[in-house]
Inverse folding.
DNA sequence: GCAGTGGATGACAGTTCTGTCATGCGAGGT
DNA sequence: ACCTCGCATGACAGAACTGTCATCCACTGC
């Protein structure tokens, strides 16, 4: 279960939040000051931090900076009544994953907490790893395999990246330039035809896969 | 560059948003009605949709439902002056990635748009393909990469399968026999030490990864 | 301390993957 | 009908991946 760290100086709010989030199934730790919060955040792993901006010792922005400096992937949801919109924008730009203005409805906080945790968090590895491709065919994201008519075909890294790119833009034409940038990470075309070659390999490997050629432009995965 | 679809019936707001987002470097398309918005959303690929809840033909919730039904990974940021907090919570629960109340400051909208679009590499399939590994570290199921402290490390097929197997049983000891069966598909041990070798390769590649050795038994990924 | 066992490590060869090149083929334009 | 350009195709070399082996090291029990 996900762990949440609350850093806020109002003890009443801390208690309410702790109760609400605990009953929502999270493991909650609280801190009343920036220094106590930092100590917890830097020594124990947390999945999400709820941070108030007005703390007695440091500002919330300073706390964020320290944490994100050592844990760039840390997720911080800022809770504050900041009257200045520039401050709100500031924390979002500085790396907070969300900002919720006080006062707020508990249900909205829980919804946002759930949302920010679902994101890079604990995904049950079963669902959402398949992308439908056509009748009876799908791409298994986790296994890098294409399944069609009960036949699993393994894809190499590049092949998989290419299929995925096309699927994400299914129906739209992808230019070679876009494919080179998105799949190969090349920002310019050094005069290669890898794209053509890999399209061919995909077509050979995945006969039911409808990759269309758009002359003078690029390729397109037919919208299912 | 990321593509944004705006669906709102107020033409003034559409124009302002289009101007602001275009100058922020995004490619913007607008629609004034739910049906026009749905047509665009379902035929062209978008990275983010800005959706008003009060539209002339359908409600924003209905639009969301249709889109998320066919594109579960679509990202929708709802913009609305919804007075009822239950409605705000509703759209967040239903799958919107964010909610911003009207009226809003343009800078905050841009900050939130940027935030929801951040990490364009993993964005479109980004959700639900990551498994948390520890503080700031996670495994990207779709890309077969390990991300720790902003460093992406590519994994080979075998390496990835092995990490995944361990993660799925995090905290439990996995015997060599189990690993050979589950990762290599070998139902008997022909007297190999591949497991040891690959554990080593993983440790070398992923220093922050806590794989423990259990003597005479096997290996274990420390429960986060 | 010493021996024995199991895991860690480094090097190696077969296989697969990746990108390049030369060539073949076909759609459009003249 | 012919020419031209762009995509398709097959072959190839370098790089990466995979599994094996021999050796080294550390823990365990004596």
């Amino acid at each position: 279960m996900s762990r949440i760290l609350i850093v806020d100086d109002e003890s009443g709010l801390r208690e309410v939040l702790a109760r609400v989030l605990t009953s929502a199934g999270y493991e909650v730790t609280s801190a009343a000051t920036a220094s106590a919060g930092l100590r917890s955040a830097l020594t124990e792993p947390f999945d999400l931090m709820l941070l108030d901006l007005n703390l007695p010792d440091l500002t919330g922005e300073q706390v964020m900076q320290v944490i994100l400096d050592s844990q760039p992937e840390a997720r911080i949801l800022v809770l504050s009544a900041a009257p200045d919109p520039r401050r709100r924008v500031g924390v979002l730009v500085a790396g907070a994953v969300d900002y919720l203005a006080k006062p707020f409805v508990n249900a909205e906080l829980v919804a946002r907490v759930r949302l920010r945790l679902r994101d890079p968090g604990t995904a049950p590895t079963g669902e959402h790893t398949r992308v439908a491709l056509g009748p009876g065919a799908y791409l298994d994201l986790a296994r890098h395999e294409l399944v069609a008519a009960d036949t699993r075909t393994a894809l190499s890294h590049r092949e998989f990246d290419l299929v995925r790119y096309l699927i994400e833009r299914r129906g739209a034409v992808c230019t070679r330039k876009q494919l080179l940038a998105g799949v190969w990470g090349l920002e310019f075309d050094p005069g290669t035809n890898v794209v053509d070659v890999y399209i061919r390999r995909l077509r050979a490997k995945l006969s039911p896969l409808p990759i269309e050629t758009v002359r003078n432009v690029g390729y397109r995965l037919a919208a299912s």
About this structure: Residues 8 and 14 of chain A are 6 Å apart (CA to CA). Residues 120-128 of chain A have pLDDT under 50 and may be disordered. Residues 156-159, 192-194, 197-198, 215 of chain A lie near DNA strand C (CB under 10 Å from a C1'). The longest helix of chain A spans residues 11-23.
